[in-house]
Amino acid sequence: MLQAVSGNRQERYNRTHPKNTRDAPVDEGDAVWNKRAVKNRQFRKLGMNFEKRLDQSITKWNLLESRFYQAWSEGCLPKESLAQYANEYGAFISRIPEGWANHGDESVAEEEREHLKLWRNFAQELGVDIGDPKTQEVVELVKTADALFSEPVTALGALYAFEAQQPGTAETKLAGLRQHYDVTEKACEYFVVHAQDYSEPALLRNRIGVLADAEQLRAVTACEEMCRALRKALDGMTPAGISVQ
Length: 245
Fold this sequence. Notes:
By secondary structure, the chain is mostly helical. Helices cover 73% and strands 0% of the residues. It has 14 helices and no strands. Helix 6 packs parallel to helix 9 (136-149), helix 9 packs antiparallel against helix 14 (213-237) and helix 10 runs antiparallel to helix 13 (199-209). It is globular and about 50 Å long.
């Protein structure tokens, strides 16, 4: 099943991501979003620099700069904290399929449902399962996801906040797991799948780019809101006194 998913991702990558997310053209096979592109093409040339706004939000709340991920990468994050992360952050991961489905992409939503099974493998390797979060910042993250994923336009921006950072964070977490923690490859599969997945952020960036001005502003605002919630959740789970280089 993973091979089939990977193949689908590669096809989407080749179609939407020739160089990087900025250069990816609008997916001509996506009828709904292509109609939006035609309708709003003039605005896309004249309107606000949405790409700059998206990039600014991700830079401001860069997840790789969190002490939690830095400690993970260096191997000084306690394994108990990894288990807490797998358990609580999994509640957010379980919302990702809903975000894709609610803006009309059931194909990716189904892929993400399969990936949730991989996250559960990661959690179970650490002796836990996906559960309701107890850390207040993670509770707030889940509430933010529920609100933003419930509406198609804000779902685009909120998903982009996560998916645009996921290749980098997945690659870093994968390296940390393999180097510093005694886990099997089964626990690593979620991060293996996402470490080179640039197709989804390309797709989302294109779809934000063809929105009308008011909708585009809402998507960009949702991206910033989600970026902040994601970073705050990691900060909330970071053990007190943890030291990173």
